[in-house]
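Hi R.,

Quick one: here's the DUF1572 domain-containing protein sequence you asked about.
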Amino acid sequence: MSLGNEYLKVVQERFKSIKDLGDKTISQLSNDEIHWNFNDASNSVAVIAKHLSGNMVSRWSDFLTSDGEKSYRNRDQEFENDIPSKQELIAVWEKGWKTLFETLNGLEGQDLLKSVVIRGESHTVLEAIERQMAHYAYHIGQIVYIGKQIKDENWETLSIPKGKSEEY
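And here's the predicted structure, written out as tokens:
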């Protein structure tokens, strides 16, 4: 296997891992809890998930052939807390991830050094993947943190529980 193809395999596993953290957090939250925000300057889990999906659909559609910031994207609208239900949120969330994974599955190692454009800036495919990985991990971390705050003692940990490191 080539280094490029191995990288693509590993990066897909990493994206799946961070998606899994988001999935497991969202699954613990009620319809009301996905809309909770600390204050007016904060985003709810629903808003963050909606923003991630909008970013994914924009960035990963026609990935090799068009600017990653699509003309049809309304980024500001992504920050409106207007998804009415958890079920609809999950549909929006899955649409973004589906777009990302379909695109990654279609890439090959030799594509990694090709140029793509995001907001008029040229990036190698490798740079664009890493840019998005950092962005998504950042926001998934926010989702997990919000979930932990909301659930408090009812939070079901997503990793090794405190005080249990020796067991692992």
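The longest helix spans residues 125-151.

Cheers,
M.
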